[in-house]
Amino acid sequence: MESVGFDKRSTVAGVQSILSAAFGVVSSIGSATLIRAWAGLRPHVPDEVPLIGPQPAVSGLILATGHFRGGILFGAITGRLVQELILGVPASIPLD
After folding, report:
1. With contact defined as beta carbons under 8 Å apart, do 69 and 1 qualify?
2. SS3 52
3. Residue 84: helix, strand or coil by DSSP?
4. Rounded distance, CA 55 to CA 7, Å?
5. What is the pLDDT at residue 21?
6. How open is the CA angle 80-46-18, to the nearest 5 degrees?
7. What pLDDT does 83 receive?
8. Please, what are the averages of pLDDT over each run of 10 residues along the chain (96 residues)?
9. Cβ pair 9, 39 in contact under 8 A
10. Can you list the positions of beta strands (E) in 10-71?
11. Whole-number pLDDT of residue 24
């Protein structure tokens, strides 16, 4: 991970760091062909707690953002919570 704002270009140093870690786990990866490098943005908020819930300033807008590195891990529960908010049923887990 590199803190570069909204710049999604991959850096050589970033790719090298990832490949070095992968090589440490699976040494045969050294013979693999690198086809392309890709970088994604990982939005987060200062306290690193995702924002999930209605946005009071815009009627009907429900936020589900700021998951940082846990986005794929929290996808299922976030989807359920957003569904519950839309349907107006009690949340499965407290949103506070």
Report:
1. yes
2. strand
3. helix
4. 27
5. 94
6. 80
7. 96
8. 80 90 93 90 84 92 90 91 95 89
9. yes
10. 51-54, 62-65
11. 93
pLDDT of amino acid 84: 96
Name residues whose C-beta falls within 8 Å of residue 39's C-beta, 6 or more positions apart in sequence.
Answer: 8, 9, 10, 14
Other Cβ atoms less than 10 A from the Cβ of 18: the count is 13
Q: Are 41 and 66 in contact (CB under 8 A)?
A: no
Retrieve residue 86's tokens: 């839309």
Residue 13 and residue 39 in contact, taking contact as beta carbons nearer than 8 Å: no
d(C-alpha 52, C-alpha 84), whole Å: 11
pTM: 0.66
Alpha-carbon span 84 to 95, nearest angstrom: 11
Query: How big is the CA angle at 8 (ends 6 and 14), to the nearest 5 degrees?
Result: 115
Q: Which residue has the tokens 């704002």?
A: 5
Q: How far apart are CA 75 and CA 91, in angstroms?
A: 15
3-state SS class at 15? helix
5: left (phi over 0), alpha (psi -120 to 50) or beta: left
